[in-house]
Specification:
The protein starts with a helix and ends with a strand. The protein has 476 residues and is α+β, with helices and mostly antiparallel strands. It is built from nine helices and 13 strands. The strands form three sheets. The chain has a six-stranded antiparallel sheet with strand order 2-1-6-5-4-3. The chain has a five-stranded mixed sheet with strand order 8-10-11-13-12. The protein has a two-stranded antiparallel ribbon with strand order 7-9. It folds into three domains: 1-229, no CATH class; 242-322, Helix Hairpins; 330-474, 2-Layer Sandwich (Heat Shock Protein 90), CATH 3.30.565.
Length: 476
């Protein structure tokens, strides 16, 4: 049961059914109340009409025993100021709701003089022969000719000369109103469950159809997880709704994950290959030295060890960058950092812009490594000269950028390879061999460090025809 209610389809169906049920109950209650009010109002109008007819006869001087009180089996009472019943319908057997339970006129002692006295001492707010415009309504019951029923009673006052103020109570049956309300209630009790069933069924089917693509996405994701085949993609429904956007986003995520995993696999394979060479060379030299000490190439062993150390450091730095290591927020002068890295390098000229220092924020160590890698790459391919320019583009306000340009007078980078040079373990030609060109990680590390610091690193052509690398970083 809990599993069934845990599905989106079941919750949507239950929610829609409850909302419709609440709305139907509220609407049904309002309809019944309105129907009862309208029909009761009609019964009250009929009762008032009867009461005013009798009051008109009394105002005209008609004697009590001459009154016509049989109006379609509607109970009528005439009460004087003292609350004494002076006239009533002939077939009236029982009555409640009018304030007077008597059904037979009460005999008087003293005759008309008492009535006159009552009239003189009574309420003279009405003139003789005048019928009060106000009417009051009450609900009650009465038995007429053995039939008991509920009635709406109307009370109308009339001033009669010599008799004082009389009150006429006339009733109109509520049986038609009760029957109509009962019929409406029966229809609702039968129709509402059927309507709720239709709503639940339609909601279930519509939700099932709407969620079918989601189930397809879930099933495909489960299959991808089981097979670990990141080349597969989830089906995209031919719609323009949220489900289609979810499928496209999922495929984009799978594509990014596939690229990342493939990149990691290539990185591990290339790293293993790159490490294998210096380790094998070092081992060979050591084994030869152990067997023939006079043949030990100490300088070569040291060179292989240093190369192995640098490669391990590069791999560790790339691992930290891939893990999302934050660059920090230390502020320093980028021009000073460039001068420090260029110091002692043959053929490297540093040109700085006039004005204030170029201040950036981040990891001084990582940015120093970036500049050093660019200088190493430029010196490796330059014929005679490397020029480094440091300046600031734009103002400090409104998105100014620090610019570092590293240009050499070598052969340059072909246009088709200006993005490829930033890939890991990439060497464009034989000149970039493992012996003198490194493992092909320097520019990849430089690009990653630049991106981590919110900057860019691009390759272009220098004025002298060689390679031009442009580093842009946000200034602080």
């Amino acid at each position: 049961m809990r599993r069934a209610l845990g599905s989106v389809r079941a919750r949507a169906t239950l929610g829609a059914t409850l909302v419709v049920a609440i709305a139907l109950v509220a609407a049904g209650t309002a309809v019944l109340l309105s129907l009862w009010s309208n029909l009761s109002g009609q019964a009250g109008t009929q009762a008032e009409r009867t009461a005013r007819t009798v009051a008109a006869d009394l105002a005209a001087g008609t004697a009590y025993d001459k009154l016509s009180l049989d109006h379609d089996d509607r109970p009528v009472q005439v009460v004087d100021e003292s609350g004494r019943l002076v006239a009533a319908s002939e077939d009236l057997e029982r009555i409640s709701g009018t304030g007077v339970t008597a059904v037979r006129p009460q005999a008087t002692t003293g005759g008309d003089p008492d009535d006159s006295a009552a009239g003189e001492d009574g309420d003279h707010s009405l003139s003789p022969g005048e019928i009060d415009d106000d009417v009051s309504f009450t609900d009650g019951s009465a038995t007429v000719e053995g039939d008991e029923a509920d009635y709406r009673f109307a009370a109308v006052r009339v001033e009669v000369d010599g008799k004082g103020t009389l009150t006429v109570h006339a009733g109109a049956p509520l049986s038609a109103e009760q029957s109509a309300v009962s019929t409406a209630l029966t229809v609702m009790l039968i129709g509402f469950p059927l309507l709720l069933g239709v709503v639940a069924g339609v909601t279930w089917l519509v939700t099932r159809r709407a969620l079918r693509p989601v189930e397809g996405i879930r099933a495909e994701m489960a299959a991808i997880t089981a097979s670990q085949d990141l080349a597969r993609r989830v089906p995209v429904p031919d719609t323009h709704d949220e489900v289609a956007r979810l499928a496209r986003t999922t495929n984009e995520t799978l594509a990014a994950l596939e690229t990342s995993v493939e990149r990691q696999r290539r990185f591990v394979a290339d790293a293993s290959h790159e490490l294998r060479s210096p380790i094998a060379s070092l081992r060979t030299q050591l084994e030869v030295g152990a067997a023939h000490p006079e043949l030990l190439d100490v300088d070569g062993a040291v060179e292989d060890t240093v190369r192995l150390q640098r490669l391990a450091a590069d791999l560790l730095l790339l691992a930290r960058l891939d893990a999302g290591e934050r660059p920090g927020d230390a502020r320093f002068d980028l021009a000073e950092l460039v001068r420090e890295q260029a110091e002692g390098r043959v053929g490297v000229t540093v040109v700085t812009g006039a004005g204030a220092e170029v201040e950036v924020a981040g990891s001084r160590t990582q940015l120093g490594r970036l500049v050093a890698n660019l200088l190493d790459n430029a010196q490796r391919h330059a014929r005679s000269e490397v020029t480094v320019t440091v300046r600031q583009e734009g103002g400090r306000q409104g998105g100014g950028r620090a610019l570092v340009e590293v240009a050499d007078d070598g052969d340059g980078v072909p246009v088709a390879d200006r993005e490829r040079v930033f890939e890991r373990f990439v060497r464009l030609d034989a000149a970039r061999s493992r012996d003198d060109g490194g493992a092909g990680l320097g520019l990849a590390i430089a690009r990653d460090v630049a991106v981590r610091h919110g900057g860019t690193l691009t390759a272009g052509e220098a004025a002298a025809g060689g390679a031009l690398f442009e580093l842009r970083l946000p200034v602080t």
